[in-house]
Amino acid sequence: MAEFISLYSGSSGNCSVVRSGGAYLLVDMGKGVRVTTGALREAGLDASDCRGILVTHEHSDHVKGLGTFLKRHPLPVYGAGPTLAALEAAGLLPAACPICLLDPDRGEEADVAGFGVRAFPTSHDVPCVGYRITTPDGKTMAIATDLGTLTPAVHAALDGCDLVALESNYDPYMLHNGPYPYYLRARIEGPRGHLSNDECSEKLLELVQGGCEKFALCHLSQENNTPPLALQTVFTTFGAGGVVPGRDCIVQTQRRSEVSPTLEF
C-alpha cells in the first residue's frame, strides 16, 4: 500500500509526502522548519525515515523551510539543474547534503531508495517540474503544481497513474472580481502561471475515464478560490461526463495550513 499525504498546500506554502512501507519522499518544503516538523509529527512520520526531498522549483512557497531543515537533516535533494543552481546560490543546500540532478527533458527514471522518480517539465515563470513516482510496491502517482497550461509532457506524465495530485489554483470569476491588479491576473491565468478549477476538472475527467481513481486538488489560492468551489467545479464536470465521485473515484482538496487526510493508492 502507498500513501499520499499533503502536509500543507496553497499559495502560502506547499509540502507533500509519498510513502510506501516505512520510507517516504518529501516534495517541496514551503514553510518553516517548525511548521513542517510539526506536520510530520502529526502525520506520524519521523524525519529519519525520509529518503530524499524532491524540489519542483525555486519559489519561496516551495522552498522556504528547506535550508534550515537540511541543516538538521542532511538528506539528498533532487531537482532540475536550474532549480538546484538557484537553491545553491541562495545558500539553501548545506555541503553535507547530496545533490542529485534530474533532467526533465530526458525523461529518465531515477532510483531513489527504491522509489522510481521521473521529473517532467511544467510551464511556469521560472524553470519548474512535476514528478511521476513509482513506489517500491509498484504503485504510481504524479504531482504537478504551478503550471499555466497542460503541455504534452504533462499529459504523458499523468497518464496511467493510480493517483494524481494536480493544481486547482483559481476560479476565473473570483480572480477577475478580486483585489489583484491586471498584471498579476494576467500572470496567473497566462500560459506560464497557474491552472484554473475548470482546466483541472476537465483533465481529471479525462484521467478518471482512463482508470485513475484518486485525486488530490492542490495549491488552491487563498484569495481566488475556495475548497468547496474547487470541488463543485470538479463534480459538475464529472456529472456531465457521467462520473460519480465516491462511486467511481475519490477527489479531495488539500488543506492550506494543516495536514490533509491520507489518500491511499
SSE diagram, text form:
Layout: E1 2-8, E2 15-20, E3 23-27, H1 33-42, E4 50-54, H2 60-63, H3 66-72, E5 77-79, H4 81-89, E6 99-101, E7 110-112, E8 115-122, E9 128-134, E10 140-144, H5 152-158, E11 163-167, H6 172-176, H7 182-189, H8 197-209, E12 214-218, H9 227-240, E13 250-253, E14 263-264
Helix pairs in contact: 8-9
Identify the CATH architecture.
Answer: 4-Layer Sandwich
- Within CATH, the superfamily carries the name Ribonuclease Z/Hydroxyacylglutathione hydrolase-like
The protein's oligomeric status is single chain
Q: Regions with pLDDT < 50 over 5+ consecutive residues?
A: none
CATH topology: Metallo-beta-lactamase, Chain A
What is the strand tally? 14
Notes on the protein architecture:
- The structure is a single chain.
- The chain is of the alpha/beta class and 265 residues long.
- The chain has one domain: Metallo-beta-lactamase, Chain A.
- 29% of the residues lie in helices and 26% in strands.
- The protein is built from 9 helices and 14 strands.
- The chain has helices spanning 33-42, 60-63, 66-72, 81-89, 152-158, 172-176, 182-189, 197-209, 227-240, and strands spanning 2-8, 15-20, 23-27, 50-54, 77-79, 99-101, 110-112, 115-122, 128-134, 140-144, 163-167, 214-218, 250-253, 263-264.
- The strands form 2 sheets. The protein has a 7-stranded mixed sheet.
- Helix 8 (197-209) crosses helix 9.
- The protein is globular.
